[in-house]
Amino acid sequence: MGKSLKGYEFTNLLFFLVLIVVLAGGCWWVFYHIGTKDRVVVVDAEPGIASEQTTGDITLFYLEGFHIVGSARTYRSRLEIPSTDDGLVRDLFGLPGLEEIVIEPQLIIVKKNGTVSWNKLSQPIRDIIKNHLHSHY
User: Fold this and answer.
1) Per-residue pLDDT tens over the stretch 4-39
2) Closest listed residue to residue 52, CA positions, set 134, 44, 127, 128
3) Architecture of domain 49-136 in CATH?
4) 41 falls in which pLDDT band (50, 70, 90)?
5) C-alpha 115 chain-centroid distance
6) Is 77 buried (19+), middle (13-18) or exposed (0-12) by CB count in 10 A?
7) pTM for the model
8) Is 89 within 8 Å of 78 (Cβ atoms)?
9) How many CA atoms lie within 13 A of 14 on its CB side?
10) Within its chain, how far is the Cα of 71 from the centroid?
């Protein structure tokens, strides 16, 4: 007759519980680090602009506490600015080198051409957005 495994139930249960905890911790660590690699960093404490993220010729300005439009709107030139514009898009297109502006409820996306650097555009764009938010909301 063979040996009985009756005395090992608790040891097996403990082993599998430890294995589950270790696997769950490993999954959490992987997903936490993958999820934070593209995290947006707060760049200014300016009211209205929570943060910005630049990738190549596109910068995203995230707004905190403001819903500036009901649905997304895209403008590719001054000719597309509607007569109902409250000045934000017109002022942004007044800066040199901007090709496209997308306005979403809590996000403003600005695309520039390659001839102008973000060093010259970032602060004027922030100023325009900040002034617009404070004068209209």
Assistant:
1) 666 778 888 889 999 999 999 988 888 776 665 444
2) 44
3) 2-Layer Sandwich (3.30)
4) very low
5) 25
6) exposed
7) 0.64
8) no
9) 5
10) 17
